[in-house]
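Final report, Chapter 2: Outcomes

The project's central promise was a pipeline that accepts a single protein chain and returns its three-dimensional structure in a standardized token representation, suitable for archiving and comparison. That pipeline is now operational. To close this chapter, we reproduce one record exactly as it appears in the project archive, with the input sequence first and the structure output second.
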Amino acid sequence: MRKVKYKVDFSNREIIVKSAMQNDSLTLEIEVLDNGEQVSLADSNIELLWVKPDNFPKKISENITLQNNKIIVNDVDAECTSVSGICNFELTIKKSDKQISTFPLTLKVIQSVINNPSVENTVMKLLEDLIIASNNGENVLVAMDKWAEEHQDLENIADVLSSVKNSVKELSSQIAEKANKNDVANLSSVTPEFISSIDEMIDTTKTYVNITDGYIYLYNSTTSNFEKSSLQYQATGLSDKSVDITKLEEKIQNKFEKETTETDIIGGELSISKYMINGVDSTSKVVEGNSLAYTTNTTYGTYGWIFENIKGKKYQIISTVENVGNISADFNFMKAYKAEISGGVVSLNGDIVGEMVTLDSGVSVTKTYIITSDQDETIYKGIALCIKCNINGATLKLTQTVNEINTVTSISRLKMIADVANVANTLSPEYKKELFNEFFNNWNGAKVLAIGDSLTSAKKWQLKTTELLGCYITTHAKGGKGYIDLIDGENGQDGDYDNETDASGILRPLSVDDVANKKLIIVYAGYNERHMIYGGIGDVYPTNNTLAGKVQYVINSIYSLLEQANNLTCKLLFITPHCVGTYGYVNVDGYGEYPTGTGRTLEGISETIKKIAQYNNIEVLDLWHNSGIGKFTWDIYCAKTPASATAPYPDNVDLVHLNASAGYPHLGTLIANKIKTM
């Protein structure tokens, strides 16, 4: 029985993805924390609602035990893992019939290879029959000897008996020369060369297996041709590390085709816009955080967080709704679209999502939906999943988390076995990636911390890097910030902060907990340091207020935290800025001088970062020289908006930040490729 462990925190509702094999029986161990502290589960009632990849639900309320702050779910039967793909389940904790909290958890069920091939027994049966006949013949001879001894008076009996014995010996000799059981087994278990047609059989010294029929072909010197034998390769069974696809059921054989299916992989959390849609109000509102308690005051009110609309894109939205008012309320969820992200009214109401929910006062519910945009992103810039409440005066508190869903190609383990065994001749790029992650990737499942400014806080490049490496990336970043704020926090080391980033969006200092158990820390900044004097080796902030001094300060601070976390084996990777185009804050491109007359360029900034990192024996990804982003490719990779735009970012001409279609995936690929070499 496989044990799968989760650690959930009331203060950090991070989506946690674990894995298991198809048809596994499971024991789940779920540790419950609140801001890192153990939560007492005494007198709690626990339920799990399990939803398989085929959307079949299963409620689990039995075989659940509590150990301090741990929930142990024993004997989760194989029915829950019978379908490969993404399983989602909710953990509900109640005390005295009052719901304390729910957690969305995810389990990736990996397809298993189960073979029950039919065995070709024709040759073996023939040998068995021959051996039986031979034994019977020996018995007959013994009987004949006895009979002859008793009837010595009969003429010519000795001659007849001698003739029979000679015939039996000749037959036995022929059988021995043809084959025995071990010979057939050995012949069946050799490793011939696999080909797909008789025309590929060239070497007369070799034995071939034609993968179109699964039979062994032998060279006949008399006819000067390769001829099909009566033996199928591995007809007596499968040897290690080999699979004969002709022995599989047709539905399994089809999985060897290079036509692939789609599977949904949950990406990282999106940066949710602070703008709200309200059916009651004429325009959007700005609110703090990702929660809002709203009281409907007309026939209905709709509200939810806006995020970037990409037609055909899938999003996973986790919505917790709590009735904080005094009256019961009925509500649905509804898709809504806006012409702008940063302002304006609802442009289009879309489909109702899910069934009507009735929520009594003081009760909360968590719903997870996957929605697909069906509207053109050039017309509707924003999309949201909104509450639609028809009750006047109802007060509902909505908390939402939005995740992109990346569609990738899924290649079964059967394909892996087939190609490794040289049954298939070509490897798709998707399959090469899966082979790498499965067998050669030291970063699969690794924990990574990304530190940076707006290019990192968007949490876009992390999706591609995670997809390619299978790692888990945590982000500590905020737009417009330089190296010191990213380490010391916006209010300094001695400032006041909430646990993570407080309601005002103030970035807290980097902590020991941030770097604990990390295999890699990525520092990707420098775009907001263009005004800085370069400085050189030996500079340390604040004594030396130079770019070199700030980079050295970052390195010293991170290693100090790593030492406190007993994690000095963690690797560091610094990333330099790429070549940017013009933008509102610095009205020169990456090639230009800034400030004017100083001789400082973004290339100089990048070279300084590189020099200080390498001086400290830290790896560097040099985007300035090696990203392929520059004046000839800005229109391909950058988040350019119409040249006539005059509004502030993100509605200005922006050749610094990257676009979602090509730019961020390209950056994520570059980072993943660099990490592979570390």
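Archive annotation: The chain has four domains: 2-110, 122-255, 266-407, 444-676.
This record, like all others produced under the grant, will remain available to the consortium after the project formally closes.
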